[in-house]
Design a protein that fits this description.
- The structure is a single chain.
- The chain has a single domain (2-152), classed as Alpha/beta knot, CATH 3.40.1280.10.
- The chain is 43% helix and 22% strand.
- The chain has 5 helices and 5 strands.
- The protein has a 5-stranded parallel beta sheet.
- Keywords: Cytoplasm, Methyltransferase, rRNA processing, S-adenosyl-L-methionine, Transferase.
- Its main location: cytoplasm.
């Protein structure tokens, strides 16, 4: 399975980089994983609705340029479907079973994802109704993908 994790903005925090590097290394035994960062737009503190849409649209164009037509896209969005770790594992297993070997998880910038990215997504996933820094979500996502592969292989993993 080929998995892309596409995020807006460059990861700066060392502690997050270390965690993501660790889980990416562990995931290498199960799948090919590619971490892609697209440039974020600078948003003014008091951006208007029109300015926010314009920023999300520009970031969205960059995200969409990284997706292949046959990729199954899962957008991380607060309004997405919430799953348990076991349900995510089952979902990934079903995608592989039905020939969806290219999967992209997409995490937007601080303003979220553009309408075009959400339309391109095959499904949306939420980790919580709470808002998290998008860079922290990258670490949580990579860990959950790793956990999903462990669950699907029947390998031990802490609960």
């Amino acid at each position: 399975m080929n998995i892309q994790v596409i995020t807006v903005g460059k990861l700066k925090e060392k502690y997050l980089k270390l965690g993501i590097t660790e889980y990416t290394k562990r995931l290498g035994a199960y799948a090919k994983i590619e971490l892609i960062e697209v440039v974020d737009e600078k948003a003014p503190e008091q951006a208007s609705v029109a300015e926010m849409k314009q920023i999300k649209d520009k970031e969205g164009e960059r995200i969409l340029s990284k997706l292949h037509p046959d990729t199954h896209v899962i957008a991380l969005a607060i309004e997405g479907k919430m799953l348990t770790s076991e349900q995510l594992a089952d979902n990934l297993d079903k995608l592989a079973t039905y020939g969806k070997s290219k999967i992209a998880f997409v995490i937007g910038g601080s303003l979220g994802l553009s309408d075009d990215v959400m339309k391109r997504a095959n499904e949306s996933l939420s980790f919580s109704k709470m808002t998290f820094p998008h860079q922290l979500m990258k670490l949580v996502l990579v860990e959950q993908i790793y956990r999903a592969f462990r669950i699907n292989r029947g390998e031990p993993y802490h609960k």
